[in-house]
Write a structure and sequence with these properties.
Shape: globular
Largest sheet: 5 strands, mixed
Distance between the termini: 23 Å
Bound molecules: 5'-O-[(R)-(carboxyoxy)(hydroxy)phosphoryl]adenosine, zinc ion
Strand order of the largest sheet: 7-6-5-8-9
Order of helices and strands: EEHHEHEHEEEHHHHEHEHH
Length: about 325
Amino acid sequence: MVEDGRRVLSDVVSSQAAFFSRYGGVVPELAGRNHAAKVLPVVREAMSKAGVTYGDLGGVAATFGPGLTGALLVGLNFAKALAAGLGVPFVGVNHLAAHLQAPLLSDDPPEPPFVGLLVSGGHTALYEVGPDKGAGERRGGLLRFRLLGETLDDAAGEAYDKVGRLLGIHYPAGPALDALAASSEDAPQPFPRPLPERLNFSFSGLKTAAARRVAELVGAGRLEERRAAVAAGFQAAVVETLTEKALAACRETGLHKLVVGGGVAANRGLRELLSRRAAEEGVEARFATLELSMDNAAMVAARGYFLLAAGRTSPPELEAAACLELGVENG
Ligand code: KG4
Ligand code: ZN
């Protein structure tokens, strides 16, 4: 439940992470079923926490992609039905745009234009983010995106999950790997710095390097003792790469503001290094809170609010889109 596109009245997250950790990843069929079971109780809880009733709702937004089709369909159809029943507008939101909207859920939101760094489980990309010109007075909150660079292989979050698995950490491994890296007292294990050309990223080499390092340590019977140092070395390679590419994007576009969204934006090593390096280069770096960095509905509601304020509703036929680039809105 979000008011005025900026204020979170309530944000309820029903995570399936613990359920899926035993499977080593998300099982799509089960994810869809879980969504169907949870969606109404979660909406009721969010309304009760916000102290609002159905009559208070001015519109309903739901993610239409990218993501797992079975899970997207549940939210999308629930939102369409709710909006139709209440006689309020419905709008489909691109999940990636919502991640870059999350840092604007603040009393003092950064005004576009800025560089957007999106780092999630499925995506790693840099965008030039500007105000959407078609949005009238509300344009400060309605963003539009131009792709500057993206990963050529794995996403940063995906690399965390794969390297985490090598170190025996359950999916999603990011938070625990982050904590393990911070706990390391030894010199970090050396990892390459993948720097493909221009503003692109590449993380699959880090996964290969980690697999090799872990195999060597297992062979030497020293994995347990060096686990944290492997985590620290891997984390340093990821956060340095993300930081330097993001600052290169600021230099290239001449922008002095940087907004970071997506699950990996919750990484403490990234928050620390990026904030420090940005300050050195005269760039203002903004993150969402930890809760709003990871998947949540508030960021979807916020993006939906600004789309609806600009008169951009979605047709009832809007379909779920498993694969979607940023910049494709409303189907
Ligand atoms: O944005 P998100 O919640 O879901 C997607 O849209 O993908 O991102 C989830 C990803 C997972 O790969 C998870 O391991 C990673 O974000 N992640 C982290 C941290 N917290 C979550 N990666 C590194 N450090 C963290 N603290
Ligand atoms: Zn996400």
